[in-house]
Write a structure and sequence with these properties.
The N terminus and C terminus are likely disordered. By secondary structure, the protein is an alpha/beta fold. The relative contact order is 0.16. The chain is 33% helix and 9% strand. The protein has a domain of 149 residues: HUPs (Rossmann fold, 3-Layer(aba) Sandwich). Strands 3-2-1-4-6-5 form a six-stranded mixed sheet, with helices on both faces. Helix 5 runs antiparallel to helix 6.
Length: 254
């Protein structure tokens, strides 16, 4: 498909990655859908930002895909959101699962709730249930989009709207959006909202590893709340030490 709008990215030139910084979220999503079609996907954990991306893409009128990482430990309300997306947008969310043998080996050796034991154990679990499944899924696409925003955490402060990573484009159309913009778009366009937001969950992941936050806490304070210090990242966007790029600690049993 021909490129649209101001962005005319080709695999021979990275100049349009710079142009992307000056483009709006709607322009970037329109360009991605029209350029890549079904080789473009939105990674959806059903938080407000991800749902905005689905809403924006659905307004373009072209084909695109939506996938989620089903770790086997998700909230029941998250599965309800998958059906909501189907009903509202006519999109069947593609579920991406971890390798069964890896999960069985990990839980047999470390227990089903190993993540409470140490940061290393939690990162191991995230690697098996999220990082590796994502890497396998991304092999199907030339470009994918996330709901990352710069103001969410210190580690995300430098995220770019369009970047090349591992031979494909990673697109973060909402990188420069504020929380107020997220709320306004969601309200104005009546974008479906995950039920856990009403219970104080501004960041939603696996059920055992996510809790509601208290007044004054940061947006991601409910993620792995028992850990002291360190970045609150699972490894699918940033390495365990908070650096740019996916990663996980090496482990013999995974």
């Amino acid at each position: 498909m021909p490129c649209s709008g101001r962005l005319r990215y080709t695999w021979e030139s990275l100049t349009d990655l710079e142009k992307g910084e000056a483009s709006s979220a709607a322009e970037i999503v329109t360009w991605a859908v029209n350029t890549f079609g079904t080789s473009f996907a939105i990674s959806n954990s059903f938080q407000k930002e991800d749902m905005i991306l689905v809403d924006l893409a659905s307004r373009v009128g072209g084909p695109f895909r939506v996938f989620t990482l089903d770790t086997g430990r998700l909230h029941e309300e998250t599965y309800q959101m998958m059906e909501t997306v189907r009903e509202r947008y006519g999109i069947a969310v593609e579920l991406t699962f971890p390798d069964r043998s890896e999960v069985e080996r990990m839980t047999a050796e470390r227990g089903p709730n190993l993540f409470y034991g140490s940061i290393e154990a939690r990162q191991l679990c995230c690697g098996v249930r999220k990082v590796r499944p994502l890497e396998r899924k991304l092999a199907e696409f030339r470009a994918w989009a996330t709901g990352l925003r710069r103001e969410q955490t210190e580690a995300r402060a430098a995220v770019r709207k369009i970047e090349e990573m591992d031979g494909r484009l990673k697109i973060n159309p909402l990188a420069d959006w504020t929380q107020a913009q997220v709320e306004e778009y969601t309200r104005h366009h009546q974008v479906p909202v995950h039920p856990l937001y009403a219970r104080g969950f501004p960041s939603i992941g696996c059920a055992p590893c996510t809790r509601a936050i208290q007044p004054g806490e940061s947006e991601r304070a409910g993620r792995w709340w028992w850990e002291q210090g360190g970045p609150r990242e699972c490894g699918i966007h940033f390495s365990p030490d908070g650096g740019v790029g996916r990663g996980e600690p090496a482990a013999k049993n995974a």
